[in-house]
Design a protein that fits this description.
β3, α5 (86-95) and β4 (99-101) form a beta-alpha-beta unit. The protein has a single domain (3-158), classed as Alpha-Beta Barrel (Aconitase, domain 4), CATH 3.20.19. 34% of the residues lie in helices and 16% in strands. The termini are far apart. The strands form two sheets. A four-stranded parallel β-sheet has the order 1-2-3-4. Strands 5-6-7 form a three-stranded antiparallel β-sheet. The chain is an alpha/beta fold.
Length: 160
């Protein structure tokens, strides 16, 4: 697992350039353009299970869903940041992408550190240090495991 670390105010255009908004809508079309202006190596090197660490106000900008769809499609396990823009937060829940707030982990992480994320336990271990974050509500975990809100709702209706 690799940790991709970025700074504050990473906006949706940095995550997925707006110039592709109307020409790319499927995960396959979105993937090659993820973070292309911020980190040109990202889309070719990211692997399933990787983590993304960032500063404050992650996902600010427009309400486009392509950044969330793309990050989920490449297999980002979770994004750990100081804070999130509300519109991005909602889109992430809808798509089942896990968002965690843990400033201490952001401060502690250095390139090359071993990282272990225990989502259900609410901890992130970096090297010899362990940091706690507020446990995610059970419904958020269920939505993520289902693959997003639409799939979660369909499962609930089938089992009702």
């Amino acid at each position: 697992m690799k940790v991709w670390k970025y700074g504050d105010d990473i906006n949706t255009d940095m995550l997925f350039p707006g110039k592709y908004t109307y020409s790319c809508s499927t995960p396959e079309e979105i993937r090659p353009h993820l973070l292309e202006d911020l980190d040109p190596d990202f889309s070719g090197a990211v692997q399933e299970g990787d983590l993304l660490f960032a500063g404050k106000n992650f996902g600010c900008g427009s309400s486009r869903e392509q950044p969330v769809l793309g990050l989920k499609d490449v297999g980002i396990k979770a994004i750990v940041a100081r804070s999130y823009a509300r519109i991005f937060y909602r889109a992430a829940i809808n798509q089942g992408l896990l968002l965690i707030q843990c400033s201490e982990a952001i401060d502690a992480f250095k390139e090359g550190d071993a990282v272990n994320l225990d989502i259900e336990g609410g901890t992130i271990s970096i090297g010899e240090s362990t940091f706690s974050f507020p446990k995610l509500p059970p419904q958020i975990l269920e939505i993520s495991k289902a693959g997003g809100l639409l799939q979660y709702t369909r499962e609930k209706l089938r089992n009702a």
